[in-house]
Specification:
Blueprint (H helix, E strand, L loop, with lengths): L1 H27 L16 H15 L1 H26 L3 E2 L1 E2 L6 H14 L1 H33 L1 H14 L7 H8 L3 H26 L3 H9 L4 H39 L4 H10 L3 H29 L7
Helix pairs in contact: 4-12, 5-6, 5-8, 5-10, 5-11, 7-8, 8-10, 9-10, 10-11, 10-12, 11-12
Length: about 325
């Protein structure tokens, strides 16, 4: 009897097991996965560079605008020069003998090919470097000492004020008598031309130093040399570099005048010789070279000033 009941319970459980096993087997069968998500492509190098260029342009918008306006101004100047000289305009101011830009460019190509222009430019740059560096080395420390010590200023300032109004051309005969060679006399005239602007601007910078800073450093126990190095000199740097920039411009004026009168080489001599030989295109070429050299030397001084005075950089 018990055996019959057990058999009936086993038979009843077999269909249930049959139903459970297919379900478990079905749950173990891997379900086909859908399409895998495609990773977003990395930005290309060109797109990355374009983004960096846009950021740089946004940061330097004011500088780019200044350069563009300057380029447009130069282009308009060249256009006016071309029109006035091509059509030989003569209305009180005569452009009949003024060379055209094309003629000046041909003269530049000819002088560059022969090496004459480069030789004159190198000599002028060497003279301007010697005269200007000597003037800066002498004028800046002298101006600092004169601005700090009243006794030194009372001695030196009257003499400098007497010599300062004398133009560079007036120094040519005296420099020829003072120095044994024309080269040294030309360097001396360049030195004189740049010396006084540097000296006066250094004095101006020392006079504008805030006395509160000086008294504060003295209260903190700073000695005279430390005050000079940490207070006076940094506070005077903007005026010193202004004087260096002005002095460089005056140095070029003095150099060209000296080369025209007593020189045998140099860009000033090149320009004067072109006038003597009635080579109008070379005259214009010499004038343009003088302007470009002066612009480049002043730009170098301003660049050094931005490096030395990072707190004065424009945002």
């Amino acid at each position: 009897m018990k055996h019959a009941v057990l058999m009936r319970s086993v038979q009843a459980s077999v269909p249930q097991a049959a139903e459970i096993l297919p379900a478990a087997a079905a749950s173990e069968v891997p379900v086909p996965a859908g399409p895998k998500p495609v990773p977003s492509p990395r930005p290309s190098l060109r797109r990355h560079l374009a983004a960096k260029c846009r950021r740089w342009a946004a940061l330097h918008h004011a500088e780019i605008r200044s350069y563009v306006i300057g380029a447009i101004s130069l282009a308009l100047f060249l256009l006016a020069w071309h029109l006035l000289t091509t059509y030989r305009v003569s209305f009180h101011v005569r452009f009949t003998n003024v060379p055209t830009p094309a003629e000046v460019f041909r003269s530049f190509a000819r002088a560059t090919h022969s090496g004459t222009l480069l030789h004159h430019v190198v000599l002028s740059c060497r003279r301007i470097a010697l005269g200007f560096v000597i003037a800066a080395v002498v004028a800046v420390p002298l101006g600092l000492v004169m601005g700090r010590f009243r006794f030194a200023r009372d001695i030196i300032f009257p003499v400098s004020e007497v010599l300062r109004p004398i133009p560079a051309i007036a120094w040519v005969p005296m420099s020829i008598m003072l120095w044994p060679s024309n080269e040294e006399s030309i360097v001396f005239i360049t030195f004189v031309g740049s010396f006084f602007p540097i000296l006066l601007n250094t004095l101006h910078g020392m006079a504008n130093v805030d006395p509160v800073l000086v008294r504060a450093s003295q209260c903190l126990g700073a000695r005279e040399f430390s005050i000079f190095r940490e207070v006076y000199f940094p506070a005077s740097l903007p005026s010193i570099f202004t004087g260096l920039t002005v002095g460089m411009g005056v140095a070029w004026v003095s150099l060209i005048a000296a080369e025209m009168i007593s020189g045998q080489f140099g860009i000033g001599y090149f320009t004067w010789e072109a006038y003597s030989l009635v080579q109008y295109s070379d005259i214009a070429l010499g004038m343009i070279c003088i302007g470009v050299l002066g612009l480049g030397s002043s730009a170098i001084i301003r660049g050094i000033g931005r490096v030395v005075m990072p707190w004065k950089r424009n945002p």
